[in-house]
Amino acid sequence: MSAFPTPWSDPTGRPDVPPRHTPRAAALLLSGTSHECAEARRFTVRTLAAWESEHLADDARTVVGELTANAVRHARAHRPLDTAEAEIRLKLTLRPAHLLISVTDHGDDLPAYPPPAKDLDTAGRGLRVVEALSDHWGWTRYRPTGKTVWALLPLRPRS
After folding, report:
1. Which of 144, 145, 127 is nearest to 136 (CA)?
2. Which stretches make up the Histidine kinase/HSP90-like ATPase domain (predicted)?
3. What are the backbone dihedrals phi and psi of residue 150, each rounded to the nearest 5 degrees, phi first?
4. Mean per-residue pLDDT of the chain
């Protein structure tokens, strides 16, 4: 799948007919090392620029950073580096009202939503940040192992 799909064009060629929204999608496969979180954020910014959706970049980069860091930190904890199960997949899908960000890994543990962090804590805020920036977030579990953690960011600014 190309990280930069071709722009959609109206097949009818009629200006009086509003175009259908065709979802755009881009994916990035990560091996699960911590330096790849930065690559996931860069990929997100480049993809949104190609889709002329730069206004989403700050929030999307933050959510992608949190979700990929969680996948690297928690899902990879018990996986050998040389297995396919160590892979993490980031997918961005531009829909009519939302940007869907999803991160899939082969980890067994579901996301934990910890109690509010104390002021001096250096970890434990990631999913709270994702919740604050998104309209909805959640996860889908796979059997025998794996999960996708996802978030829907609104295309329009919140009022």
Report:
1. 127
2. 37-151
3. -135, 160
4. 79
What number is the average pLDDT over the span 8-15?
42
For tokens 């960011």, the residue is: 153
Q: Tens of pLDDT along 56-74?
A: 999 999 999 999 998 888 7
pLDDT at position 3 is 43
Closest CA to 29 of 139, 106, 140, 112: 106
Distance of alpha carbon 116 from its chain centroid, rounded?
23
- Two tokens at 115? 């109690």
What's the one-letter identity of residue 48?
L
The answer regarding whether domain 24-154 maps to CATH 3.30.565.10 reads yes
Token pair for 150:
């996802």
User: Could you give the C-alpha distances from 142 to 79, 112, 147, in angstroms and in order?
Assistant: 17, 17, 5
So what's the pLDDT on residue 119? Answer: 59
Distances (CA, A) of 152 to 101, 134, 143: 6, 5, 24
Look at the block and give the residue holding tokens 């940007």. Answer: 99
Alpha-carbon distance of 26 to 154, in angstroms, equals 18
DSSP per-residue string spanning 53-67: -GGGHHHHHHHHHHH
What pTM did the predictor assign?
0.76
